[in-house]
């Protein structure tokens, strides 16, 4: 349905994290639940970085380096 396992997780992880965040907002939680929520939100950040990398790759030079969160160094000298 979504393609590769990385694409599937990058699509599903933010949705799961959003649902978890809505369910726990404003509540006092056990430390184990807090750790689980932190891991879900961290996965969402990594999914956002993955999406930015995909867009940067599709757009190409020179605009891809402006979009990419971690632009690679060019082998050409300035």
TrEMBL record:
Q: Name one GO cellular component term.
A: plasma membrane
Q: Which residues cross the membrane?
A: 6-25, 32-52
Leader peptide range in chain numbering: none
Listed A to Z, the keywords are: Membrane, Transmembrane, Transmembrane helix
| Gene Ontology MF: a single term | sodium:proton antiporter activity
In terms of superkingdom, the source organism counts as Bacteria
PANTHER family documented for this protein:
SODIUM-POTASSIUM/PROTON ANTIPORTER CHAA (PTHR37958), SODIUM-POTASSIUM_PROTON ANTIPORTER CHAA (PTHR37958:SF1)
For this entry, the protein name equals Uncharacterized protein
Q: Which organism is it from?
A: Actinoplanes regularis
In the record, what lineage is assigned to the organism producing the protein? Bacteria, Bacillati, Actinomycetota, Actinomycetes, Micromonosporales
